[in-house]
Structure prediction request, 319 residues.
Amino acid sequence: MDTTKKPLQQSEHGHEPVLIDVVEKYANIHTGDTVIDCTVGRGGHSELFLKKIGETGTLVGFEQDEDNYNYALHRLSKNKNKHFILNNFVHLQHEVEKRGIDDISLIFFDLGLASTQVDDPSRGFSFQTDGPLDMRFDKRHPLTAAIVLKKLSERKLAQLFKEYGEERYSKKYARIIKENLPLETTKELADLIERHAPRQKGRRGRRIHPATQVFQALRIEVNQELEVLKSALSQAISILKPGGRLIVIAYHSLEDRIVKNVIRDATKECICPPQIPICTCNHKPQLKRINKKPIVPSEEEVSRNPRSRSAKLRVAEKL
Prediction:
């Protein structure tokens, strides 16, 4: 029913917000509320939040990619009730508290890449284009994917591919990469892996490029994504007001597992090890789950925006 509007949004802004209707449904925000968007990106979800909270509300947005930050600032320039911060959301609590912002009704994370990041060869995120092996969200940081390949030993590189990419052939790919250094471009790395990859298929027979998981692992390592996420979720729970909501959209199993486990632990009465017969932790639950199972995009959304297909959305509420 809204099939004409959203593709126009994607062509105009280069990125269609994932699960936007579901986010609106579960955000539970009203005029005058304070909202934190930890992943502003191109501003799609932030635009929705600003409409919901009105001129008397406050939006705080984090974005570490300077290109996205500047784009979102321009896109939402008419809204005066926003504070956009060019920084990683690992600094969430510090940045919010130093501005005296409290009474927070919603903290939102969309952990996916913007389509504009994937499609820009100079960013080095995609094996489908040829560009430098970069993969940094924040180009002010010195560590790139090319440096990771040079710096890590073969053993550590294999461990990286296995843990962060869940790559079955991690040892083989680590060996051939170290044997073929230096590798400076995405095409060089993708072609090298493709030449040495066994034939394989993804779920439901969908063919995936053999470099997919290696690229994922390198991107996670370059940006320290999993460590940052754990810290930021803990901070988010701490600063939410009672009744405030936490909404997270994750795109691969490693991220979603962290989100699921953090929410699970924050809902428990007791976090003592199972071998201890009597509770000694005095742990108090901080959250209640709003959706027990993650919400995924509809078939219609996936057909319209294929990059949404792996998205999983989880919602919890502060007690």
Q: What stands out?
A: The chain has 14 helices and seven strands. The CA atoms of residues 267 and 285 lie 5 Å apart. The chain has a mean pLDDT of 92. Strands lie at 34-37, 58-62, 82-85, 104-110, 240-250, 287-289, 312-318.
